[in-house]
Amino acid sequence: MSETQRVAPMAEREMKARAEVLDGKDELAAKRRDFILDTAPDHAADAAGVYLDGNSLGALPANVEARVVDVITREWGQLRIRSWDESGWWTAPERIGDRLAPLLGAAPGQVVVADSTSVNIFKALVAAVRIVQEDGDTERDEIVVDSTTFPTDGYIASSAARLTGCRLIPVAPADVPGVLGPRTAAVLLNHADYRSGRLHDLPGLTAAVHAVGALVVWDLCHTAGALPIGLDEHGVDLAVGCTYKYLNGGPGSPAYLYVRKEHQPRFDSPLPGWNSHVEPFGMRADYEPADDAVRGRVGTPDILSLLAFDAALDVWEGVSTAAVRAKSLALTDFFLECVAAYVPEGRVESITPVAHAERGSQIALRCPDAAAVMKLLIERGVVGDYRAPDVLRFGFTPLYVSFADAERAARVLADTLAEAPGGP
Ligand SMILES: Cc1ncc(COP(=O)(O)O)c(C=O)c1O
Ligand SMILES: Nc1c(O)cccc1C(=O)C[C@H](N)C(=O)O
C-alpha cells in the first residue's frame, strides 16, 4: 500500500511513470551517489527521505569526511605549524577561489574564499562606493538596495551607507532602473530572491547600473551551484555568496568575494587585515595591499571549514553548470506539475515565477498554515523549510535530487495539506 492515501491512483501512477522516465534520462543521476543521503533499509523508495533544503544547507558530499579527518590528524596533528606552508593552508583562500571561479563564470585571480557572506557584503559595498568616489565623483552619495532582500544584506547596506555618508534607497528589484541616476554610487542586489525563488535579470540590471556610471554588487547565495552565472561575461563589478547551499560546503563554510580584475587596483578594503597585506610576514606598521584578489582577505582563514569546502568542490568534476540548470528547471517544472495534479486547486499558491528566465532553483508555495504543514512534512521525511509568515520553500539541488523525489514530495505534501489544520 502506498504511504499516501488521498492522491488519485491514476494521477499517481502517471506521475510516477513519468518520474521514472525522467530519472532514466538524467545525465546527472549518478552524481547522487557522491552524497550522503537518507537510504531506505528495504530499498522502498517511499521509505527514504526527500531532502529539499539544499537552498539552506547542502547535503554532505561523501568524500568530505575523509579529507577533514586527514586535515585534522595529519596536517594539523602531525605537521602542525608547517602546514601553513607545506599543506598550502596560507594560500588556500585564493587557491580554492580559483577552483570555485569556473562555477561563477570567472577567470582565475578574482575570487577569494573567506569570511561570511555578511562580512563580504560589507567589504564589497564599501569598496564599491570608495571606487566610485575616488574617481572624484563625490556627488555620488546613494546606495540602492533590494528592499525584499535577505535581512543581513539590508542591515549591512544600511551600515555601509552611514559609514560612507550615503543615503540608502531600498527598492524592489524591478524598480531599480527607475531610481538610478547621477547620484547612484553602488547597488546591492540578489541574483535570486530567498523567499520566492524569483531570479533577477543579472545581465540587464548590471548594464542599467553601468549606464549611470555606478557599480553593482551581486549576492549569489541562491544561485551559485544551481545555474550558470557569467560574472566576467556580464561585466559584474563585485559579487559575494555563501558556499553552504548549492555548493555543499557544510554548515558555516566560508563565503566568497569576487572582485573584477580591473577594479582590483582600486579595491580599498574597509577591513584591511594582515592577510591582505602585500607582505604579511613583514609585520610592517604601514598597510600596503596585495595586488590581486588577495586584497579581499582579512584575517586568518578558518582552515577546517575551508578545506571541507575544497573537498566538496570535487563533486563538480565533469559537471557543467548548463547541465545543472537544465535539470533544475526540469525538476521544478515537474514538481509544479505534480503539485497541480495532486493538490486541490486553491489550497496553495506558487509565488515562484513560471517563466524559466525568472526562476532560480526553488519552489515557494504559499498557504495560510505553512508553519504547521512544514512541521508535518518534515516528520514524514520530506524536508523543506518554512519562511514567515506563510511560505513553504522547496529547494532542488540537481546534483542529488531525483524526479522520483520531486513526485514523492508533492504526493506527501498533498496528503499533509489535506490533514493539516488549514485543510478542507
Ligand atoms: C541572500 C543571502 N545573503 C546572505 C545570507 C547569510 O549570510 P551569512 O552566511 O553571512 O549568514 C543568506 C543566508 O543565510 C542569504 O540567503
Ligand atoms: N545560514 C543559515 C544558518 O546559519 C542557519 C539557518 C539557515 C541559514 C540560511 O542559510 C538561511 C537561508 N539563507 C535562507 O534563504 O533563508
What does this structure look like?
By secondary structure, this protein is α/β, with parallel strands linked by helices. The chain has two domains: 9-62 and 319-419, Aspartate Aminotransferase, domain 1 (Alpha-Beta Complex); 65-316, Type I PLP-dependent aspartate aminotransferase-like (Major domain) (Aspartate Aminotransferase, domain 2), CATH 3.40.640.10. 36% of the residues lie in helices and 13% in strands. It has twelve helices and 15 strands. It has helices at 9-25, 64-76, 83-86, 92-104, 117-134, 151-164, 176-179, 202-211, 303-312, 321-342, 370-379, 403-419, and strands at 35-36, 50-51, 60-61, 111-113, 142-146, 167-171, 184-190, 215-219, 238-241, 256-259, 349-350, 362-366, 382-383, 385-387, 391-395. The strands form four sheets. A seven-stranded mixed beta sheet has the order 4-10-9-8-7-5-6, with helices on both faces. The chain has a four-stranded antiparallel beta sheet with strand order 11-12-15-14, with helices on one face. α1 (9-25) packs antiparallel against α10. The radius of gyration is 23 Å and the shape is globular. The structure holds pyridoxal-5'-phosphate (PLP) and (2S)-2-amino-4-(2-amino-3-hydroxyphenyl)-4-oxobutanoic acid. (2S)-2-amino-4-(2-amino-3-hydroxyphenyl)-4-oxobutanoic acid is lined by residues 56, 150, 194, 221.
Radius of gyration: 23 Å
Give the fraction of residues assigned to helices.
25-40%
Largest sheet: 7 strands, mixed
CATH architecture of the largest domain: 3-Layer(aba) Sandwich
Strand content: 5-15%
CATH class of the largest domain: Alpha Beta
Helix count, DSSP H or I runs of 4 or more residues: 12
Enzyme class: hydrolase
Subunit structure: Homodimer.
Modified residues (N6-(pyridoxal phosphate)lysine): 245
Catalytic activity: 3-hydroxy-L-kynurenine + H2O = 3-hydroxyanthranilate + L-alanine + H(+); L-kynurenine + H2O = anthranilate + L-alanine + H(+)
